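Protein record
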Amino acid sequence: MDNLQFVCNYKDQEPLRNSFFALAADTFELELERWYEQGFWGERYIPYSYAEGNRVIANVSVNLLELIINGVRSRAVQLGTVMTHPDYRGLGLSARLMNKVLEDYGQQCEFMYLFSNDTVLDFYPKFGFQPVEEQLFSMNCPPGSAGSAGIRKLDLSISRDLSLVTTFAAQRQPVSERLGVSGTDGLLMFYCLNVFSGNLYYLEDEEVIAICRQESGRLEIYDLISTKPVAVREIAMKLTDSVTETIVFHFTPSDDDLELAGSSCPSGLFVRNQSSLQYPANVKLPATSIA
């Protein structure tokens, strides 16, 4: 333990950065190098780590965001990339990093939250985090819906398309005023590059980028990205095809013209209320904002 040092916010230090990327790849199969090289590691993403020399061996990353809850903005910190090298587990390094994060940000935000996997569900309540059940929203697709022309599939290997998505990500409006997140352009670009690179569509007339998939009669809409408020129902109808039966939203729509059904969505969300404000019930954070 004496040979370990605490390091923070080292994106410009190549040996530590590359070691961090390697640990993330080994632990979560995350590929972060292209994301960094394209300039999407911004000032809002801050790793808190322990290192042995230039080798990162434990980490908790801070994401500085704003939550929009019923139209009201609140400061928030989302924690992510919580990981420890197998040779250093059981030494309490994650707990020490969590305490450092709480010391630095506990008085600077209204909410702190994270998404946990099933193996560490008992860990986060020790730090004041409480489990929160999310809701997944869906609606029946009206008969006769058949999509729309004017939709272009995007290819991020083409500079024009990458520039379009990057601009929209930086200037976007939150997808929902009921529960939205601001300051997530870096996270969004990670998803666009690594998770949904084959599922990006540009509705040219509406100036909306949709992240969606069609499978077995279900249209899964993960995000709608625009620089102005989006009419969710109108866009969803344009994305349907002749076999679409159900439309699923991986965020919390706030439109009044949607007849939505909600279902439990176990996601491993833990929330720590830092003020008198309360995190809302029966909502879902946007899929592309999850660290």
